[in-house]
Amino acid sequence: ACNSKVVREEGEAAIRCVNPDCPAQLLRNLIHFCSRDAMDIEGMGTAVLETLIKESLSLVDGVTEIIDARIPNSSSNPELEELINGKPRIVLLNKCDLADKNTTNQWIDYYKKKGVKAIPVDCRTGKGLNNYIVAVREVLKDVIKKNEDRGMPGKALRIMVVGIPNTGKSSFINRMAGSAKAKVADKAGVTRHNQWFPIGNG
Q1: pTM exceeds 0.85 for this model
Q2: Beta pairing class for 16-17 and 89-94
Q3: Are residues 106 and 18 in contact, defined by beta-carbon separation less than 8 angstroms?
Q4: pLDDT grade, residue 130 (50/70/90)?
Q5: How does strand 16-17 pair with strand 117-120?
Q6: How many CB atoms sit inside 10 A of residue 109's CB?
Q7: How does pLDDT run across 139-193, given as a tens digit for each residue?
Q8: SS in 3 state form for 127-147?
Q9: Residues 12, 15, 19, 20: is their CA dihedral positive or negative?
């Protein structure tokens, strides 16, 4: 136990620790991430996912992680920070309309303290996504400056979109790309391979 405060959310039976870095919670999240309810996709286990991320990192300028705002801990890959090895990251707290606003704000502050930009969004309706391009330009300002110094102003930025199944990756891509380019479904494992989609104007 980490000796932090525990709370019981209204309407829930479970008692939860409020410490996002609680070792017991991180262990539980890792177990969930590897379980049948999470990464149990045919041909797509945690080892394959980690390999894809590592092999693709050199191709991108930054990483966008999509998590469920209702259950940020349980819907985040606990090993992502180590996997992306310092790449600039943006966290999208998806389905924010279904989450407690005060709790979401606490998570935004939590990520801010870790140097990570977090934005509450709803990828199906598009709520909050108008802040995404602004956040990308803010987080990747050093990359943009380097491109300009090299005589490549406006060079397209490449962002890796990651997230466990059913967090809203396809909905996000389709909203940002302006059309149904990625398949959306209520079952896990629909977005399971690397794809490139242009969004914005560089």
Answers
A1: no
A2: unpaired
A3: no
A4: very high
A5: unpaired
A6: 11
A7: 999 999 999 999 999 888 988 888 888 888 888 988 887 754 544 444 444 444 5
A8: ECHHHHHHHHHHHCHHHHHHH
A9: negative
How many Cα neighbours within 13 Å face the side chain of 39? 22
d(CA 195, CA 188): 17
Task: Find, among 55, 86, 61, the residue nearest to 159 by Cα.
Answer: 61
Q: What is the pLDDT of residues 18-68, one digit of tens each?
A: 666 565 555 555 444 444 444 444 444 455 556 666 777 888 899 999 999
CB 202 within 8 A of CB 194: no
135 vs 3, 17, 91, CA distance in Å?
A: 35, 30, 10
Q: Which amino acid is it at 83? A: L
Category of 189 on φ-ψ map: left (φ > 0), alpha (ψ -120 to 50) or beta: left
Amino acid identity at 34:
C
Nearest alpha-carbon partner for 116 in 9, 7, 20, 2: 20
104 token code pair: 């979401």
